[in-house]
Design brief:
Tetracycline Repressor, domain 2, 0% strand, single chain, elongated, mainly alpha, 2 domains, Arc Repressor Mutant, subunit A, 188 residues, 8 helices
């Protein structure tokens, strides 16, 4: 690495992406701020302009991924005008987001400190699903049944997000159609 390296662009985002690649190859335990700088080709001091230390970096990575995921889900709910399709579209967005960003999935869900009830993407998913389920059932479902269905739906899209990268399980040449077919096969 050159000591006179100067970075143009969004260094914080690049450090996050390069850090995720490093973590994927070598694990979180071996990551240091110096190795983070090396992976991005910047001076050893550069990461400290954005992150106080390794723990702050890891926390920011989690926040970054969560915000990107939430933004994707929010765009889906904002842009879907047909209530009968919103859960399907929300599920597709969930799966396709992590298919396109497999390192995000691996990092985010390898953490054991996610409180699902306060995790913003789940909160949005849950709120949307509850509204749809109540409307589709004519308010005939009780809260426990609705919650069970929400967990089942989240589990489906979360699990599908996990397996879309396993070779041969899903036709990735036609991924969006395959995901829609799989999600559409479950009746709510």
């Amino acid at each position: 690495m050159k000591s006179d390296t100067y970075h143009h662009g969004n260094l914080k985002e690049e450090l996050i992406e390069k850090g995720l690649e490093y973590i994927d190859k070598y694990g979180t335990e071996t990551l240091s701020m110096r190795k983070l700088a090396d992976s991005a080709g910047v001076s050893p001091a550069a990461p400290y302009a954005h992150f106080k230390n390794k723990e702050a970096f890891l926390s920011e990575v989690r926040n970054y991924i969560t915000n990107q995921f939430l933004k994707t889900l929010k765009e889906t709910t904002d842009n879907c005008s047909k209530q009968e399709r919103i859960l399907l579209e929300l599920g597709k967005s969930h799966v396709l987001f992590f298919y396109e960003n497999p390192l995000y999935y691996q990092f985010l869900f390898s953490l054991d400190n996610i409180d699902i009830e306060t995790y913003a993407p789940f909160v949005l998913f849950k709120k949307t699903a509850e509204e749809v389920l109540k409307n589709l059932s004519g308010n005939k479902l009780d809260e426990k049944t609705i919650y069970a269905k929400v967990i089942a739906l989240w589990s489906l899209v979360h699990g599908l997000s996990s397996i879309v990268t396993i070779k041969g399980v899903i036709d990735t040449e036609h991924l969006e159609e395959e995901v829609e077919r799989i999600l559409g096969s479950i009746s709510i």
